[in-house]
Amino acid sequence: MTRILTGIQATGRPHLGNLLGAMLPAVGLAQDSKKQVFCFIADLHALTTLPDAAKRKEYTYAIAAAWLALGLAKQVILYRQSRIPAAAEMAWYLSCFTPYARLAHAHAFKDKVQQGLSISGGLFTYPILMAADVLLYQAAQVPVGKDQLQHLELTRDIAHTFNQHYGPTFVLPQAHIQEETPTVLGTDGRKMSKSYQNTIDVFLPEEQLYKEIMRIPTDSTPLAAPKNPDTCTVFSLYRCVADEDQVASLHDRYVTGGYGYAAAKRALTSAIQERFASARKRFNSYMHDLATVEQRLVAGEERARAIAMETLTTVRATLGYLTDSL
Ligand code: ADP
Ligand code: TRP
Questions:
Q1: Is 225 in contact with 233 (CB distance < 8 Å)?
Q2: Could you give phi then psi for residue 3, rounded to 5 degrees?
Q3: pTM above the 0.90 mark?
């Protein structure tokens, strides 16, 4: 059975980029009963940038609730990364097959350096833990946004190096990218990311959502003049959430003129409200019933641990260590 796996960091509430780039594609793939799907909350990765324990816990539940609200099939294994200690052990083994130079060239790491953040060993070795997440479950496909391609390349290279040393051990994973979903832009026009505070939280009530959308900077083209949809962040976001006819009609309004950015922002708010109306309802009810979310996580963690231990046992044996449980 093909295994599919993806994770979302517990560094904030899930946003439109997470939903379109990774969560909805995974939910879609999980409809196929011939695929075994693993969805997890990367709460260990989150520690690299979020030391606040209470917040990390809150976001962990919010991401789990979002998975469930989006209609994650019952058979999907949903779990918290931190509840599977095999990942940390695996990460150590893999780190010994990861060239230092590859880590130093990782975009995500260079980006944090550029932001002037102080870099911990955890942040530097972040891609190795990600490789462990994937290889531990022998996942063949990994639905992620384009920004994660480099991490997936590194995962494949680590797996390949290990296989060359010891014979076939790991499945080489492929990134599963939604070609039609470009990188979703944030309210400042950069990539939407929890680490830039530019996210759109689709589960907010309408007026709060509108406030987030109002932050999007637009140019100073006068209301009467035609506007360029191709350079407008509001339009780019609208294209991600509205249907084809709606997009064509907004496009017309832009190029004709007489249509202002405030109206476009209202249209974007309504499109998001509509598209996620039922998911929003379910999300709120899960957030008021965390016992149900917790139950689903615990059940997933039991299954994930058993599968992870199979791979870990093989790897321990391959590396010449004892294989019995401690
Ligand atoms: P963030 O950048 O907000 O911290 P994560 O790193 O937890 O988000 O990303 C989780 C998943 O969501 C990854 O597969 C990532 O590629 C995807 N993703 C995040 N932001 C975007 C975006 N702006 N557009 C498309 N996909 C995204
Ligand atoms: N690094 C991913 C991100 O920031 C999150 C993640 C951690 C992940 N482990 C993973 C994604 C394994 C896919 C598979 O988006």
A1: no
A2: -105, 135
A3: yes
Q: How many CB atoms lie within 10 A of CB 121?
A: 8
Quote the CA–CA distance of 43 and 45 in Å, as a whole number: 5
Q: What is the largest CA-CA distance in the chain?
A: 74
β partners of residue 142: 175
Ligand 2, closest atom to CA 108? Answer: 4
How far is C-alpha 124 from the chain's CA centre?
19
Which tokens is 244 given? 């084809």
| Residue in the block written with tokens 């560094």 | 11
Which of 57, 78, 59 shows the shortest CA–CA distance to 68? 78
Is residue 317 a contact partner of residue 93, using CB atoms and an 8 Å limit?
A: no
Residue range 256-287, pLDDT digits in tens? 999 999 999 999 999 999 999 999 999 999 99
260: helix, strand or coil: coil
Distance separating alpha carbons of residues 176 and 37, to the nearest angstrom: 13
Residue 176 φ then ψ, to 5°? -110, 105
For ligand 2, whether the C-beta of 134 sits within 6 Å is yes
Secondary structure class of 42 (helix, strand, coil): strand
The response to whether residue 177 sits with its C-beta less than 6 Å from ligand 2 reads no
DSSP string, 1-38: -EEEEEEEESSSS--HHHIIIIIHHHHHHTTSTTEEEE
Q: Is the CB of 232 under 6 A from ligand 1?
A: no
* Cβ count within 10 A of residue 40: 27
Q: What is the pLDDT of residues 186-213, one digit of tens each?
A: 999 999 998 889 999 999 999 999 999 9
